[in-house]
Specification:
The protein is mainly α and 96 residues long. It has six helices and no strands. Helix 2 crosses helix 3. The longest helix has 33 residues. The radius of gyration is 16 Å and the shape is elongated.
């Protein structure tokens, strides 16, 4: 196997891992939002963005920036480390 092909495969694998991690973070945000009984509109208003923009963030259409992530964690009253951890958040873990 040529080195360039090998490096391309590594790059593709890294991209897949990153997409999976982002999907997990977005899932965790959605789970905590539902647990807190917050609507997307509520978070949007708190963040100073439109509900449509917030929906696009939570659905992965718009990139989740660090600024947005910090705002969301604060509004949801959850540690950032819990949102970006390696496991899916459950209602039990939100309570602890």
């Amino acid at each position: 196997m040529k080195l360039s092909c090998f490096l391309f495969r590594i790059e593709v694998m890294n991209h897949i891992v990153i997409r999976e991690k982002i999907s997990l973070v977005l899932h965790n945000i959605r789970s905590v939002r539902h647990f807190r009984n917050f609507t997307q509109e509520y978070l949007a208003v708190q963040m100073g963005i439109s509900p449509k923009t917030y929906s696009k963030i939570e659905n992965g259409v718009i990139t989740l920036t660090v600024e947005y992530l910090l705002q969301i964690a604060e509004i949801l009253n959850i540690e950032l480390s819990q949102l970006i951890g390696n496991e899916s958040i459950s209602a039990v873990s939100v309570l602890t």
